[in-house]
Amino acid sequence: MYFSEFKILSRYSIPIIGSEVLRNTLLMMPVLFIGHRSAFELAAITLGSSYCNVTGWCLLIGMDSALDTLCSQAYAAARTREDKKKIGSILQRGFVILMAITLFIFALWEFTEPILLLCRQDPDISRVAGIYSKYSRFGLIPYVVFECEKKLMQIQGIMYVPTFIIGSALPVNALLHYYFIFSKWSPLPDELAYIGSPFSTAITFTYMSIVGIIYIKYVKGSECWGGINLKSIFNFKKWIEFLKLGIPGAIMVCNEWWAYEVCALIAGILGEIPLAIQSIFSSITNYSYNIPMGLSIATTLRLGYNLGEGNSKKSSATTKISILMAFAFGIINSLVLLIFRYKLPKIFTDDDEVIKGCSQILIIGAFYQLSDGLATIGNGILKGSGHQRNGALINFIAYWCIGLPLGTFLCFTLKLKLNGLWIGMASALFSVMALEFVTIYRINWEKEVEATVKRINKN
After folding, report:
1. What residues contact 420, with CB distance under 8 A and at least 6 apart?
2. More confident residue, 85 or 136
3. Any transmembrane segments, and where (predicted)?
4. Local confidence band at 458 (pLDDT 50, 70, 90 cut-offs)
């Protein structure tokens, strides 16, 4: 049983890890291109991206985690063709809820500059970050469309296609970035070249969503799609079950992301160079995070499937195997960051001061990779079993009651600056790992199967 679960998790996680790495590369394009223009623009784009993460992307990513739980469990429990088509209704309800949240995000991104000024950020950097955020709104809707398509494919075991779609979008995105930012044929004046980045991202997301629709409709993936069902979409009683998982899922992600973006705000207070170091450090560690994140998503899907199938023993086996795999990935990530800490920053910038500072802080990044990987897999286990509420509480305690207070104290009081800040965040990750493992250890998988049956029947 354990070996079979290992094989299934490996088969799921490899394409999902690839998808996460490619998606992260896609979102990294602004830093890669604008970072070679000037440290000022790099700092501004970093701040703008941080604001967008805090007020937008984390809400969407957290809310759509409910789809992973509900759809994977419902797919495993489906016994007939009609049962499977009802999964499309769950997806449609999720899409409508996510679109409602998108309208709220549109409004928040309109007021980026004044909000950043209230947070004591540099006025010039805040102005550019505000412009960047406003134009980033064009990418929200196509992003939500593609994420729903991706989840529809993944629950049906179509793991590689989203990876191929994102992979095909990378050269498109790179060419668009070059065209808008560096090309002599760019329609943008040089002082506004940076807004070519959100334009490029929006066009790329649109391309991805169109390709996804074509594949699902004409190739494979329509098994769980029974057409648009307005009666089911606007059955507000069924929204409650989605929101019971989606809201804690959003809080769970927001607690984590907001803490990291507070780090970016603190780096902005420290100055332009620390903010640039923070940007590159975050970009590099985001790549290492993609590996346990891919495994975490695979674990959520597999755990949801096992619970929906009513198999408590397989659910327990999936949990144990995923933790062992996360441990191995954490060791590998630590070694890679430690060995290549001087070379990796050079990919993003030519500034010697930024490269030197980033190589120093990467030592801390290498140190916390193990706890980060195990904490991430813990998140996946809690989501797969429908325990987003526990995850939200754990993240709040670890990041906001332990990590950030300690990091701020070390940064400003002991004057350790960015090093102190990230020592605090490393302690937060260790706390998340420890608290999640205590919670997971206490899970009764037979009772989880019973809870899953009730959840599926309600939905």
Report:
1. 407, 409, 410, 411, 414
2. 136
3. 90-109, 158-180, 192-216, 321-340, 360-381, 393-415, 421-441
4. low
- For 181-234, the DSSP string reads HT-TT-SS-GGGGGGHHHHHHHHHHHHHHHHHHHHHHHTS-GGG-----HHHHT
Domain boundaries, the chain: 2-458
Cα–Cα distance for residue pair 318/304, rounded to 1 Å? 10
The answer to whether residues 64 and 151 touch, using CB atoms and an 8 Å cutoff, is yes
Q: What pLDDT is attached to residue 96?
A: 93
Length of the chain: 459
- d(Cα 227, Cα 223) in Å, to the nearest integer? 11
Q: Tell me which amino acid residue 39 is.
A: A
**pLDDT computed for residue 459 by the predictor:** 62
Residues 6+ apart with CB under 8 A from 256: 58, 395, 399
In the chain, the amino acid numbered 366 is A
What Å distances lie between residue 126 and 45, 51, 259, CA to CA? 9, 10, 20
User: Which residues, at least 6 apart from 418, have a Cβ–Cβ distance to it below 8 Å?
Assistant: 267, 270, 274, 277, 278, 281, 357, 361, 411
Summarize pLDDT for 27-36 with one digit per residue, the tens: 778 877 887 7
29 to 169, 176, 203: CA distances (angstroms)? 12, 10, 13
Q: Which residue has the tokens 């802080």?
A: 361
Q: How far apart are CA 157 and CA 301, in angstroms?
A: 10
